[in-house]
Design brief:
Helices cover about 0% and strands about 50% of the residues. The protein is an all-beta fold.
């Protein structure tokens, strides 16, 4: 049983009896019937031995016992460029940042990857973006984590206030783009000499 999962005990083979009676490790009653829900979200406090007996015509049967052990669900963490991402993170990357290989930490179990529900290697590329999900299992419990990787469709265009200038004359340059941060714009000549920053600039 996985930590955090419902813990329900059931009679393996139901017989004609007056009642089934369930007891915890301290022999305190926890319910009657062919099944009993010990907890909707089991914790390690629910580990231990449970007992069951039936009654027929006022007589008790022998007691049967079962031992419950809880397994911790793995909690994988997806890493992008060496940075662990919280589960459900959405990341937008520039086109030149691809490809990116995803890794998983916080678990020693072998990961399985899907992209939008389809099996995939853990590599994000310009043609391979969307919701990546990693699953790891300890043989009893399965833990998952997701990250959505998108392409930042940033476009930038530049133009001048005139298309014909004489030698020695100045020209004003402008830039436009979606999600553009003007303070991040840097202008240079073809020779690498700095013209200025922002928009517009005069050269």
């Amino acid at each position: 049983v996985c930590v955090g999962s419902p813990l329900e005990l059931r009679v393996s083979s139901v017989s004609t009896v007056d009642s089934y009676n369930w007891l915890d490790a301290s022999m305190s009653s926890i319910g009657t019937g062919s099944s009993v829900i010990v907890s909707n979200q089991a914790t390690t406090a629910h580990e231990g031995e449970y007992h069951l007996y039936s009654t027929v015509g006022g007589c008790h049967s022998d007691t049967s016992s079962v031992t419950v052990a809880l397994e911790t669900t793995p909690e994988p963490v997806i890493n992008l460029s060496g940075i662990g991402l919280p589960n459900g993170t959405e990341v937008s990357l520039c086109r030149e940042s691809f490809p990116q290989t995803l890794t998983v930490t916080n678990t020693s179990y072998t990961p399985s990857w899907t992209l939008d529900g389809n099996t995939t290697p853990p590599i994000a590329s310009r043609n391979n973006t969307g919701e990546f999900e990693v699953s790891v299992s300890n043989g009893v419990c399965t833990g998952t984590a997701t990250v959505t990787i998108l392409i930042d469709e940033f476009e930038l265009s530049a133009y001048a206030d005139t298309y014909g200038v004489e030698e020695g004359e100045s020209v004003t340059l402008y830039a436009e783009g979606n999600n553009m941060i003007e303070s991040s714009l840097v202008w240079n000549t073809v020779n690498g000499s700095s013209i200025g920053t922002g928009t517009p600039v005069t050269y």
